[in-house]
Write a structure and sequence with these properties.
The chain is α+β, with helices and mostly antiparallel strands. The chain is built from four helices and nine strands. A hairpin with an 8-residue loop joins strand 8 and strand 9.
């Protein structure tokens, strides 16, 4: 049976290709699934329309890939991993790790299968990675693999400094509050002392006034007694 393929069928034929296939394969699989039709005059017109659509899709895809390539070219990403002696990683960086970081840090979605790595990366260092978007569109990105523990050490040191500064600030605030409290206590003590002195002075004046009044009364009494004595004589 001779058929014209309407779609690409992996390892069999591409769209528009005319090929002789087994009758059973054609009738039971290709034609029912609309992957191919019998080769005749009608098929020629259909296949021309199919090829036109395919060319349009390919052009759109290529435009998208070229735009993606512009964004990817020279893009720099950083991956951290635990490392041991001689900067050897305990694990490995794979194309899946690179694809994930590209999406996370740059917002660029790339099929991990298009990231070309001869083998997983197993050492700390800088790398240039090719991404084969199409046969002819192959942008390159820069990858820096860093040791995780060293970076964590820096973060811990920064956290320690932050805590120390916070503690220093809190201590300073406490000291200022304590100083303000001492000043307030001294002020209150001084006011109390002044109040006591004023009260003591008032009481002293009152006693002096009472004593003077009492002396005046005694004086008047003596004068009166003297007058009474003179009258009796």
């Amino acid at each position: 049976m001779k058929v014209v393929f309407l779609e690409d069928v992996p390892n069999v034929a591409e769209t528009g290709e005319v090929k002789e296939v087994a009758d059973g394969y054609g009738r039971n699989f290709l034609i029912p699934k609309k992957l191919a039709i019998l080769a005749d005059a009608k098929a020629t017109r259909i296949i021309e329309a199919q090829l036109k659509k395919k060319a349009q899709r390919q052009a759109e895809t290529e435009a998208e890939m070229r735009e993606l390539a512009k964004q990817l070219e020279g893009q720099e990403i950083v991956l951290k991993a635990r490392a041991g002696a001689k900067d050897r990683l305990y694990g490995a960086i794979t194309n899946a790790d690179i694809a994930e970081e590209l999406e996370k840090s740059a917002g660029l979605v790339v099929d991990k299968r298009k990231i070309e790595l001869d083998e997983p990366i197993r050492e700390v260092g800088s790398y240039e990675i090719a991404i084969r978007l199409t046969k002819d569109i192959i942008p390159k990105i820069k990858l820096k693999v860093m040791e995780e523990e060293k970076e964590e050490g820096k973060e811990k040191e920064a956290g320690k400094e932050k805590k120390e500064k916070k503690a220093e600030k809190v201590g300073k605030a406490k000291k200022e509050r304590a100083t303000a409290g001492e000043k307030e206590e001294k002020k209150e003590g001084k006011e109390k002392e002044e109040g006591k002195e004023k009260k003591a002075g008032k009481e002293k004046k009152e006693k002096k006034a009472e004593k003077a009044e009492e002396g005046e009364k005694k004086k008047k009494k003596r004068v009166k007694e003297k007058e009474e004595t003179n009258q009796s004589v």
